[in-house]
Design goal:
This protein is mostly helical. The chain is built from three helices and no strands. It has a domain of 73 residues. Helix content is 83%, strand content 0%. Helix 1 runs antiparallel to helix 2 and helix 2 runs antiparallel to helix 3. The longest helix is centred in the C-terminal third of the chain and has 125 residues.
Amino acid sequence: MLPSPPRTPLSGDSRNCCSSSSSCSSSSSSSSSKGVVGLTAAAATSATTTTAAAAAAAAGEAESCGGETGAADNDLSQGIAETAAAAAAAAAAAAAARKQQQQQQQQQQQQQQQQQQQQQQQEVERAVGGVVYVLLMTLPLQQQQQQQQDQQHHHHQQHQQQPQQQQQQQQQQQQQQQQQQQQQQQQQAAVEGR
Protein backbone atom coordinates (compact mmCIF):
# COMPACT_ATOMS: atom_id res chain seq x y z
CA MET A 1 0.00 0.00 0.00
CA LEU A 2 1.23 3.53 -0.78
CA PRO A 3 1.32 6.05 2.10
CA SER A 4 -1.82 8.13 2.49
CA PRO A 5 -1.51 11.89 1.90
CA PRO A 6 -1.43 14.08 5.03
CA ARG A 7 -4.86 14.91 6.36
CA THR A 8 -5.87 18.45 7.25
CA PRO A 9 -6.28 19.09 10.96
CA LEU A 10 -9.78 18.69 12.32
CA SER A 11 -11.67 21.64 13.69
CA GLY A 12 -11.49 20.21 17.20
CA ASP A 13 -7.69 19.93 17.14
CA SER A 14 -7.05 23.60 17.89
CA ARG A 15 -9.86 24.18 20.35
CA ASN A 16 -11.52 22.64 23.38
CA CYS A 17 -13.92 19.84 22.34
CA CYS A 18 -16.20 20.69 25.20
CA SER A 19 -16.13 24.52 24.85
CA SER A 20 -19.56 24.55 23.23
CA SER A 21 -21.14 22.41 25.92
CA SER A 22 -22.55 24.25 28.94
CA SER A 23 -22.20 21.22 31.22
CA CYS A 24 -18.40 20.98 30.74
CA SER A 25 -16.30 22.20 33.73
CA SER A 26 -13.06 24.12 33.42
CA SER A 27 -10.95 21.33 34.92
CA SER A 28 -12.42 18.70 32.62
CA SER A 29 -12.01 21.08 29.67
CA SER A 30 -8.36 21.53 30.46
CA SER A 31 -7.61 17.85 30.80
CA SER A 32 -9.66 16.84 27.75
CA SER A 33 -8.04 19.60 25.69
CA LYS A 34 -4.56 18.24 26.44
CA GLY A 35 -5.68 14.71 25.45
CA VAL A 36 -7.23 15.81 22.17
CA VAL A 37 -4.19 17.84 21.16
CA GLY A 38 -1.88 14.89 21.86
CA LEU A 39 -4.02 12.45 19.92
CA THR A 40 -4.44 14.87 17.02
CA ALA A 41 -0.69 15.52 16.74
CA ALA A 42 0.06 11.79 16.74
CA ALA A 43 -2.67 11.18 14.16
CA ALA A 44 -1.37 13.96 11.90
CA THR A 45 2.18 12.53 12.05
CA SER A 46 1.23 8.89 11.50
CA ALA A 47 -1.25 9.69 8.71
CA THR A 48 1.63 10.72 6.46
CA THR A 49 3.14 7.22 6.62
CA THR A 50 0.38 4.58 6.65
CA THR A 51 -3.37 4.44 6.30
CA ALA A 52 -3.66 2.14 9.30
CA ALA A 53 -2.16 4.73 11.61
CA ALA A 54 -4.57 7.31 10.23
CA ALA A 55 -7.46 4.97 10.97
CA ALA A 56 -6.28 4.49 14.58
CA ALA A 57 -5.89 8.22 15.07
CA ALA A 58 -9.34 8.82 13.62
CA ALA A 59 -10.79 6.26 16.04
CA GLY A 60 -9.05 7.98 18.96
CA GLU A 61 -10.41 11.33 17.90
CA ALA A 62 -13.85 9.90 17.56
CA GLU A 63 -13.71 8.70 21.18
CA SER A 64 -12.51 12.10 22.48
CA CYS A 65 -14.68 14.30 20.27
CA GLY A 66 -17.74 12.54 19.00
CA GLY A 67 -18.69 15.41 16.75
CA GLU A 68 -15.58 14.95 14.56
CA THR A 69 -16.32 11.34 13.47
CA GLY A 70 -17.90 12.30 10.15
CA ALA A 71 -14.97 14.47 9.05
CA ALA A 72 -12.42 11.80 10.05
CA ASP A 73 -14.34 9.15 8.14
CA ASN A 74 -14.43 11.38 5.08
CA ASP A 75 -10.67 12.02 5.24
CA LEU A 76 -9.96 8.32 5.73
CA SER A 77 -12.23 7.32 2.83
CA GLN A 78 -10.60 9.92 0.61
CA GLY A 79 -7.12 8.63 1.47
CA ILE A 80 -8.12 5.01 0.81
CA ALA A 81 -9.72 5.98 -2.49
CA GLU A 82 -6.64 7.90 -3.61
CA THR A 83 -4.37 5.04 -2.59
CA ALA A 84 -6.55 2.49 -4.42
CA ALA A 85 -6.61 4.70 -7.51
CA ALA A 86 -2.81 5.04 -7.45
CA ALA A 87 -2.41 1.28 -7.04
CA ALA A 88 -4.85 0.62 -9.90
CA ALA A 89 -3.00 3.07 -12.14
CA ALA A 90 0.35 1.42 -11.31
CA ALA A 91 -1.10 -2.04 -12.03
CA ALA A 92 -2.54 -0.84 -15.34
CA ALA A 93 0.79 0.72 -16.33
CA ALA A 94 2.64 -2.49 -15.46
CA ALA A 95 0.15 -4.57 -17.48
CA ALA A 96 0.52 -2.23 -20.47
CA ALA A 97 4.32 -2.44 -20.23
CA ARG A 98 4.19 -6.27 -20.13
CA LYS A 99 1.83 -6.34 -23.13
CA GLN A 100 4.07 -4.01 -25.10
CA GLN A 101 7.12 -6.12 -24.24
CA GLN A 102 5.33 -9.29 -25.39
CA GLN A 103 4.35 -7.62 -28.67
CA GLN A 104 7.94 -6.51 -29.24
CA GLN A 105 9.19 -10.03 -28.57
CA GLN A 106 6.65 -11.48 -31.01
CA GLN A 107 7.66 -8.97 -33.68
CA GLN A 108 11.33 -9.82 -33.16
CA GLN A 109 10.59 -13.54 -33.47
CA GLN A 110 8.60 -12.97 -36.67
CA GLN A 111 11.42 -10.88 -38.12
CA GLN A 112 13.98 -13.56 -37.25
CA GLN A 113 11.82 -16.25 -38.88
CA GLN A 114 11.42 -14.14 -42.02
CA GLN A 115 15.18 -13.55 -42.18
CA GLN A 116 15.87 -17.28 -41.79
CA GLN A 117 13.38 -18.12 -44.54
CA GLN A 118 14.92 -15.53 -46.85
CA GLN A 119 18.42 -16.87 -46.17
CA GLN A 120 17.31 -20.43 -46.86
CA GLN A 121 15.57 -19.38 -50.07
CA GLN A 122 18.66 -17.49 -51.22
CA GLU A 123 20.86 -20.50 -50.47
CA VAL A 124 18.54 -22.77 -52.46
CA GLU A 125 18.48 -20.33 -55.36
CA ARG A 126 22.28 -20.08 -55.33
CA ALA A 127 22.60 -23.86 -55.25
CA VAL A 128 20.13 -24.33 -58.11
CA GLY A 129 21.77 -21.54 -60.08
CA GLY A 130 25.15 -23.17 -59.60
CA VAL A 131 23.88 -26.51 -60.84
CA VAL A 132 22.24 -24.92 -63.87
CA TYR A 133 25.41 -22.99 -64.65
CA VAL A 134 27.51 -26.13 -64.44
CA LEU A 135 25.08 -27.97 -66.70
CA LEU A 136 25.08 -25.16 -69.22
CA MET A 137 28.86 -25.08 -69.23
CA THR A 138 29.35 -28.82 -69.43
CA LEU A 139 26.67 -29.61 -72.03
CA PRO A 140 28.57 -28.00 -74.94
CA LEU A 141 31.73 -29.82 -73.90
CA GLN A 142 29.86 -33.09 -73.75
CA GLN A 143 28.34 -32.43 -77.16
CA GLN A 144 31.75 -31.65 -78.60
CA GLN A 145 33.21 -34.80 -77.10
CA GLN A 146 30.30 -36.83 -78.45
CA GLN A 147 30.77 -35.34 -81.92
CA GLN A 148 34.48 -36.09 -81.81
CA GLN A 149 33.80 -39.64 -80.75
CA ASP A 150 31.23 -40.02 -83.54
CA GLN A 151 33.67 -38.67 -86.09
CA GLN A 152 36.44 -40.95 -84.88
CA HIS A 153 34.09 -43.92 -84.99
CA HIS A 154 33.00 -42.99 -88.50
CA HIS A 155 36.58 -42.66 -89.70
CA HIS A 156 37.41 -45.96 -88.11
CA GLN A 157 34.50 -47.58 -89.87
CA GLN A 158 35.63 -46.05 -93.14
CA HIS A 159 39.13 -47.39 -92.62
CA GLN A 160 37.71 -50.80 -91.92
CA GLN A 161 35.36 -50.68 -94.89
CA GLN A 162 37.99 -49.56 -97.43
CA PRO A 163 40.04 -52.81 -97.36
CA GLN A 164 36.87 -54.84 -97.61
CA GLN A 165 35.73 -52.83 -100.61
CA GLN A 166 39.11 -53.23 -102.24
CA GLN A 167 39.02 -56.96 -101.69
CA GLN A 168 35.56 -57.16 -103.17
CA GLN A 169 36.66 -55.18 -106.19
CA GLN A 170 39.65 -57.41 -106.68
CA GLN A 171 37.53 -60.49 -106.41
CA GLN A 172 35.07 -59.07 -108.90
CA GLN A 173 37.91 -58.28 -111.29
CA GLN A 174 39.31 -61.78 -110.92
CA GLN A 175 35.91 -63.28 -111.57
CA GLN A 176 35.51 -61.13 -114.66
CA GLN A 177 38.94 -62.17 -115.91
CA GLN A 178 38.13 -65.82 -115.33
CA GLN A 179 34.84 -65.45 -117.18
CA GLN A 180 36.61 -63.78 -120.08
CA GLN A 181 39.20 -66.53 -120.17
CA GLN A 182 36.52 -69.19 -120.15
CA GLN A 183 34.69 -67.46 -122.97
CA GLN A 184 37.89 -67.21 -124.98
CA GLN A 185 38.64 -70.89 -124.39
CA GLN A 186 35.14 -71.84 -125.42
CA GLN A 187 35.43 -69.76 -128.58
CA GLN A 188 38.79 -71.32 -129.43
CA ALA A 189 37.42 -74.80 -128.82
CA ALA A 190 34.48 -74.09 -131.06
CA VAL A 191 36.75 -72.79 -133.82
CA GLU A 192 39.06 -75.78 -133.58
CA GLY A 193 36.09 -78.17 -133.59
CA ARG A 194 34.94 -76.86 -136.92
